[in-house]
Amino acid sequence: MVKITDVARHAGVSPSTVSYALSGKRPISEDTRQRIEASIRELGYRPHAGARALASSRSNVLALVIPFRTGIHVPVVMQFAVSVVTTARQHDHDVLLLTQEEGEDGLRRVADTALVDALIVMDVQLRDARLPLLRTLDRPSVLIGFPAEAAGLTCIDLDFAAAGGACVTHLAELGHRCVALVGSPPAVYLRQTGFAQRVTHGFTAAADERGLTSTVHPCEATPAAAQAMAERLLREHPELTGVVVHNEPVVQPLIEAFRRLGLRVPEDLSVVAICPDELAEQAPTPVSSVAVPSAEVGTRAVELLMRKLDRLDVPEATLLPPRLTRRATTAPRGG
Amino acid sequence: MVKITDVARHAGVSPSTVSYALSGKRPISEDTRQRIEASIRELGYRPHAGARALASSRSNVLALVIPFRTGIHVPVVMQFAVSVVTTARQHDHDVLLLTQEEGEDGLRRVADTALVDALIVMDVQLRDARLPLLRTLDRPSVLIGFPAEAAGLTCIDLDFAAAGGACVTHLAELGHRCVALVGSPPAVYLRQTGFAQRVTHGFTAAADERGLTSTVHPCEATPAAAQAMAERLLREHPELTGVVVHNEPVVQPLIEAFRRLGLRVPEDLSVVAICPDELAEQAPTPVSSVAVPSAEVGTRAVELLMRKLDRLDVPEATLLPPRLTRRATTAPRGG
DNA sequence: AATCGCAGTCGAAGCGATTCGACAAGATCA
DNA sequence: TGATCTTGTCGAATCGCTTCGACTGCGATT
Predict the structure, then answer these.
(1) pTM metric for this prediction
(2) Does B282 touch chain A (CB under 8 A)?
(3) For the domain bounded by A61-158+295-320, which CATH number is listed?
(4) Does any CB of chain B come closer than 8 Å to the CB of residue A190?
């Protein structure tokens, strides 16, 4: 394996000059830089990551902790991960993948061994056991989602409360007076996951403000549950004309269930989802929706982390404003 | 940060002794080992990953290259990734995530910088541009999927040919005489992806062998395409009574489309899928299926890699035998 | 004219582990 | 009873890079 001394010799300079040419931390004359770059290419030199990390105390690796449990939509996680990796690469960093199940020990391990410079943690609970650790860790971190007490932490996510509100507003403007929220599975609420609660609050608050009748219904992520939910909603709330769905796997089954029950969507019943745009677009009837912008969250999370690594100031909270796209499942009340 | 010399001093031994106690590469008396372990706990020592990598030329990190494009079912990738991470951790390794789009340069980079010790590459094409590179790389690798020319490489995957055959056999044993394969999107075939072709071959060969009439139909991964496909199959092959589906997103829509067209499943038409068990189980009507065992493939891939890192022999090809589970969508022909 | 500052480079000292050779002391063998 | 192993430990070299301080010229400043 060719090393920096080989390059130095080949270019007729000292190793430190090669290093400075590479890092740009000290001025190097155009001429020698050229020679060095030529030598690097010719010899096929690649700096040894471990040596670099040891000498500079920077590994240029980010940790990404992904969740893997019920009620979390897999494609969202995946898309997020891909966007984190892509953005990290643009900043000359790599990404180490950790699973939730490694827990606090895993975080401590990769931080204390200096395997990673910084961490991105997904699926943060309202009172997450990892928060104290993240606060004391000497490495910067960014959380996806908001815990109950976020002071001293950097958090980013879609503004789920506003998203819930935006759905209600959209329905209200179309004249709907009675709306329901079909939410995440009960387990998600029991876990005290922030985004589920925030949607609920935003939904309810907006409905109250505009004087709409509203109800909230957690729902398992299965077609059968969707069918049961549709039946129940029609039975218990016959005056219902607007439904907000925040539960990806159920969006389609729910719409189909309503149709089977004789309701036309959107003529008799409007449906707005909170879900990734792709899911909403690809449905047989494209679904009006507030986008869950996982790719953007991933990109922004990495950029926040990079700023923190550069010791620049970052906002503690970043809430992405909801973006509602009207498609074919919402219509004015009464057709 | 506490380092090995601190531990050594605290325990009254030399740094090398601490190192040997940790690695077990030389015998250490029970007594000193105890003292060292106590010191480590007390001081909270964690070996510096970079220093370790530099000195030992082992980073204890694996690279995982994941695909991200049309026709690849996201949950399968995700589950695979999680099982790779979990298994790697059991072997004291971490996992660096790379995306396909980094391509050969990405592989070369992480290998040449000694950032990773070994690589796992998913979604291998029949003639994959990365193969020559992987062959010459000094680091071991395992491929998920089989290229056209696999000599000198270590590959593992479900035996897709046998899986296609198993589906046909199952249908044949139920008395079906005319079967169709609804496959991956055309793009997957055009990309020359091994598994798609292998399913086709296995399917066709088994049908021929048993004297069944068979046809093969690539299909886009959308409900609309499923509907069109169902209509077309009924029109062009009215005698059809058995369908094999190898296209996850389409399994459910296709069954629904058949039912809308007046066919009872399984009474009039049997359907077998090649898909993850969870998907087959969770359907409204549980689907008879050959499992795509992504978690097992991930585990086995890591174990192969570990053996290679230990310079042990491994088989060049590992084909996992298909496992067919009969559920509620297959029945004897004629009800 | 003396001084300062900056561009450009070098040499050497780490960074924090692993590993090799050496060595002492006791066990084993002929 | 030596010779030979094995066990348990130490010291020093080494891994390949970054970074700090120092040095040389040279143009700009006073």
Answers:
(1) 0.94
(2) yes
(3) 3.40.50.2300
(4) no
